[in-house]
Structures are given as structure tokens and as C-alpha cells.
Amino acid sequence: MVREKVFVDHITGEIYKMLVLREKADKGEDVFLKEYIENLYVEVNGANYWSEYLAGSASYTTITSIIAYLSDNEVEFQKYRREVFKMLGLLNRINNELGGDA
Predict the structure, then answer these.
(1) CA–CA separation, 10 vs 12, rounded Å?
(2) How many CB atoms sit inside 10 A of residue 22's CB?
(3) Whole-angstrom distance, CA of residue 93 vs CA of residue 25
(4) CA distances from 27 to 20, 57, 77 (A)
(5) Distance from C-alpha of 82 to C-alpha of 102, rounded to nearest angstrom
(6) To the nearest whole percent, how much of the chain has pLDDT over 70?
(7) DSSP letter assigned to residue 73
(8) Alpha-helix residue ranges (DSSP H) falling in 2-100
(9) Which pLDDT score, from 0 to 100, does residue 1 have?
(10) In whole angstroms, how far apart are CA 30 and each of 25, 39, 70, 80?
């Protein structure tokens, strides 16, 4: 499960970046937020094909669903922020299940 742990660590940073990019977009910067989220969804969803553990994880399925929703919908900042932190909490839970640092 080392592969999954490395991937979860990577995705944690990528999901946190969603919040940074949203803050920049709200300030008027052209950061291609929609494209970033769409690309992240492809990466996150793709893990379901190579990791039985992640494919069977309810927490991971929730993360995938939230990213899909944020990709397809305009969401006010507070809700967006709440969902990003929810995903980070779920990734922390998965990391702990994989034997990671808490």
C-alpha cells in the first residue's frame, strides 16, 4: 500500500491547491481553476482503476464526488472552502488507515 500512500500524499497537496487557486480567481487572477479541477478529477478517478483499496473506500468515493461537483457547479466561496477542508479531512483519514503519520 506504499503506492497508495504516496498517491494520497500527492493528492492532498493538489486538493489544498484548489483553495489557493480559488482565492486567486476570486481576486480576478486568471488561474484556469475549472481546468485544474477537471484535470484533478481525471487523476483522482483514475486511481480507482489501479487501487482496489481506494476504489473500495467510501472516503475516497466521497472525495471523487466532491471534486466532480465542484468541477460542474459554481459554488460560493464559503461552501467551496468547507468542501476542500472536508476532502482534506477524508484524505487524512485514508492516510491514517494506510499507516501514515497523523
Answers:
(1) 5
(2) 20
(3) 29
(4) 11, 36, 12
(5) 21
(6) 97
(7) S
(8) 2-26, 33-50, 52-55, 58-72, 77-97
(9) 81
(10) 6, 16, 18, 18
